[in-house]
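In response to the reviewer comment on reproducibility (Comment 2.3), we provide here a single inverse folding case reported in full, input and output, so that an independent group could reproduce the run without further information from us. The structure tokens appear first.
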């Protein structure tokens, strides 16, 4: 994939509203588009990388991988509780004084150890949860778990105070803790970034679906008119005024996207599920028209076992 394509996706993500923006229709739409854009980039062969305190910019950037491919690096500003000014401060401080050597080093350089920084504790916690500090560890360890890094914050961070804390060593108080599971990392990604650079929810949910639920990548090889079951995350819901009551869903799994057509009478029966459930299973008949494959829905089921994940709302 060319650098131009990676730059295009970086530009598209840069155009959507950041979580620090005021709540509005545009802000909501921007958040909804994030997972759609990043997953589309992956399907086009562009690797999406998590924020990294020594590699990310304030906004998304294109990064050259060792094998020569271009990747999309998520910027600091997309993490909840960070904000544009603190994101630029992290980038500027690194450019002026060199890479950060540890979580403690970053916090002291940005003033978090004396409570005077624009970036507050919840912003640092957000960056830790999405892996921005994964290269830093405890003494004598190459890297630390996210739980260990969250523990370290309490040893260094000071809220605004008239007292200036002494820069005492904290290594004796640092303890090894178990790392987050992949599912916990996915949940943290969606909670903080409203997207996941490394995972798609369906790769964890698929083992619980049972037999007979096909991935979207296999739909092209199934005969038209066949009855199939597809499951995924609803990333878009549309009910155009000119569609005479028809509803159109875009259902995404770890392989791609499926177009789902909902007849008016079926929408009336499943209205609440179709409008509110993020993860669903759809049973329907395959139709191909003008080169497009659609699933004409006949039955819906909510994937209730997915509710521990805070999924992005569909547009």
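Designed residues, in position order:
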């Amino acid at each position: 994939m060319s650098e131009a394509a990676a730059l295009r996706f970086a530009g598209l993500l840069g155009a959507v509203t950041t979580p620090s923006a005021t709540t509005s229709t545009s802000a909501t739409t921007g958040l909804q588009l994030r997972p759609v854009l990043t997953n589309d980039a992956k399907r086009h062969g562009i690797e999406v990388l998590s924020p990294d305190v020594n590699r990310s910019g304030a906004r998304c950037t294109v990064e050259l991988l060792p094998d020569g491919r271009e990747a999309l690096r998520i910027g600091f500003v997309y993490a909840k509780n960070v904000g544009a000014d603190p994101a630029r401060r992290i980038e500027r401080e690194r450019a002026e004084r060199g890479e950060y050597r540890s979580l403690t080093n970053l916090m002291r350089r940005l003033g978090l150890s004396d409570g005077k920084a624009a970036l507050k504790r919840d912003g640092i916690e957000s960056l830790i949860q999405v892996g921005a500090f994964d290269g830093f560890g405890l003494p004598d360890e190459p890297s630390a778990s996210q739980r260990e890094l969250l523990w370290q914050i309490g040893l260094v961070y000071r809220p605004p105070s008239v007292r200036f804390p002494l820069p005492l060593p904290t290594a004796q108080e640092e303890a090894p803790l178990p790392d987050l599971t992949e599912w916990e990392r996915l949940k943290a990604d969606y909670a903080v970034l409203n997207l996941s650079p490394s995972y798609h929810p369906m790769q964890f949910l698929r083992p619980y679906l049972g037999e007979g639920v096909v991935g979207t990548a296999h739909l092209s090889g199934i005969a038209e008119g066949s009855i199939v079951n597809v499951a995924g995350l609803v990333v878009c819901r549309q009910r155009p005024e000119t569609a005479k009551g028809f509803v159109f869903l875009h259902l995404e799994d770890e392989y791609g996207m499926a177009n789902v057509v909902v007849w008016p009478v079926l929408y009336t029966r499943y209205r609440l599920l179709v409008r509110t459930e993020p993860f669903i299973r759809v049973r329907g008949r395959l139709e191909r028209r003008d080169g497009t494959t659609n699933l004409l829905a006949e039955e819906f089921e909510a994937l209730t076992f997915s509710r521990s994940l805070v999924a992005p709302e569909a547009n």
